[in-house]
Amino acid sequence: MNDFARLRRTMVDNQVRTYDVTSRSLLAALEDAPRELFLPEGQEDLAYSDQNLVFGDAAGGRYCMLAPMILARLIQALDIRPGARVLDVGSGFGYSALVMSLLGANVVALAGGQELAEEARKRLEACHATGIDVVVGDVASGHAARAPYDAILINGAFEVLPDALKEQLADGGQLAGIDGASGAGKAVVYGRSGGSFGCRALFEASAPILPRFVKAAAFDF
After folding, report:
1. What residues are paired with 191 via a beta bridge?
2. pLDDT tens digits for 105-119?
3. Quick one: pLDDT at residue 221?
4. What b-and-e string marks burial along 112-140, b requiring 16 or more CB atoms within 10 Å of the CB?
5. Among residues 54, 27, 38, which one has the least CA distance to residue 4?
6. Does residue 134 sit in helix, strand or coil?
7. Domain range 4-213, its CATH number among 3.40.630.30, 3.30.360.10, 3.40.50.150, 3.50.50.60
8. How far from each other are the two terminal CA atoms of the chain, in whole angstroms?
9. Which segments does the entry list as coiled coil (predicted)?
């Protein structure tokens, strides 16, 4: 049987600390969050691998679990403070939502299907998580009912970033994800200042393109 606590410490020390993650509160959250509880049954051994994982299907909802070092750097870039209002887009079974809640955030975890949401609630309850509200909806549309958000995390890559998500940022808020439009992916952070949005690149990274964030096919004449 795997010693998941040991694997978790190894993940933090060898994958995350060495990848320019310096936030002590984030490192502590990653060491406290039992990542193995947020994978489908029978696939727990993949929990601490340094790769992106894709689960689910088109009918029940597909989601991406970002590699630990990518997820950690995206969350660090969002600079989440206690009491921050956060939207976790494509939250899957809720791992990223748990990590951000351990930073003191109030998290809306947006799942793309009812089955995913039910699984997320069950697993988060098993962890005695607080400050997380799991909702179901179109991940590309966000969750306007609870907007504005201080931070938005997209769990995966996008070719097109919907305006609906950016518009749900609070003034001074930030959105992080993987821009895969050019083929060579890069982690980016969008920031809002009034009605304007700026974008800065963080580091090279790849992740699966989320189905609802694919660029529409163009016709050539």
Report:
1. 174, 198
2. 999 999 988 999 999
3. 41
4. bbeebbebbbebbeebebebbebebbebb
5. 38
6. strand
7. 3.40.50.150
8. 59
9. none
Q: Could you read off the pLDDT of 163-217 as tens digits, one per residue?
A: 999 999 999 999 999 998 766 789 999 999 999 999 999 999 989 888 888 887 5
Q: Would strands 196-204 and 149-158 be described as parallel, antiparallel, or unpaired? A: unpaired
Q: What tokens does 11 get?
A: 């993940």
Peptide bond into 68 cis (omega under 30): no
For 154-207, give the DSSP string: EEEEESS--HHHHHTEEEEEEEEEEE-TTSS-EEEEEEEETTEEEEEEEEE---
Query: What CA–CA distance (Å, rounded) separates 86 from 201?
Result: 21
